[in-house]
């Protein structure tokens, strides 16, 4: 269970992780220090492992920088719930082991600070505003998420 941080539509990768840091901040743990810096400067100090981000449509639009996902995973964000996602952000999130759930009804009804519980296997999200169903991830995608991302999944498969 985690607390919801709620944002609007068209949250782009530049406000998730500013482009000015793309080539200067290379350590994953350091990326967390700049998460949502231009959108919500208090976020990185308030977010706790297990918390979730909730947003409107087109979350993650903009460039394809992986840092826009990594900064969230390094802070322990458990999932992003949105009306819809930019295609490349959705794939980057899966590749980095961050569940992304397109769920319009919940994204419009969850309020800042609401406690949210997500059961990925059952495809169920519970919040004060109700219980919501979403399609469970395919077994392959769930295996990538369980492993912590595509690199870890591949290493496990190759037993490296």
Please explain how this structure is put together.
- Helix 7 crosses helix 8.
- The chain has one domain: Aconitase, domain 4.
- The protein has 160 residues and is of the alpha/beta class.
- A hairpin with a 4-residue loop joins strand 5 and strand 6.
- It is 34% helix and 18% strand.
- The mean pLDDT is 95.
- It has 8 helices and 7 strands; from the N terminus they run βαααβαβαβαβββαα.
Key phrases:
160 residues; alpha/beta; seven-stranded mixed β-sheet; 8 helices; 18% strand; globular
| Average of per-residue pLDDT values | 95
CATH superfamily, by name, is Aconitase, domain 4
Main sheet overview: 7 strands, mixed
- Number of self-contained structural domains: 1
- Per DSSP, what share of the residues sits in E-state strands of 2 or more residues? 15-25%
Q: What is the CATH first-level class name?
A: Alpha Beta
Radius of gyration: 15 Å
**Quaternary structure annotation:** single chain
Strand order of the largest sheet: 4-3-2-1-5-6-7
CATH architecture name: Alpha-Beta Barrel
Q: Under CATH, the topology is which?
A: Aconitase, domain 4
Contiguous runs where pLDDT drops below 50 for at least 5 residues: none
Helix/strand/pairing category: alpha/beta
Shape: globular
Tally of helical segments: 8
Record field, number of beta strands: 7
SSE pattern: EHHHEHEHEHEEEHH
Amount of helix: 25-40%
Whole-Å distance between the termini? 33 Å
């Amino acid at each position: 269970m985690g607390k919801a941080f709620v944002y609007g539509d068209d949250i782009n990768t530049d406000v998730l992780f500013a482009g000015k840091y793309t080539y200067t901040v290379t350590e994953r743990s350091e990326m967390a220090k700049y998460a949502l810096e231009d959108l919500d400067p208090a976020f990185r100090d308030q977010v706790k492992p297990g918390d979730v981000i909730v947003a409107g449509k087109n979350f993650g639009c903009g460039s394809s920088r992986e840092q826009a996902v990594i900064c969230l995973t390094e802070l322990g964000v458990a999932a992003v719930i949105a009306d819809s996602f930019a295609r490349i952000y959705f794939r980057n999130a899966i590749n980095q082991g961050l569940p992304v759930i397109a769920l319009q009804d919940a994204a419009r009804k969850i309020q800042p600070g609401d406690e949210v519980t997500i059961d990925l296997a059952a495809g169920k999200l519970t919040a004060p505003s109700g219980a919501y169903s979403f399609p469970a991830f395919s077994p392959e995608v769930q295996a990538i998420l369980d492993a912590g991302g595509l690199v870890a999944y591949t290493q496990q498969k190759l037993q490296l």
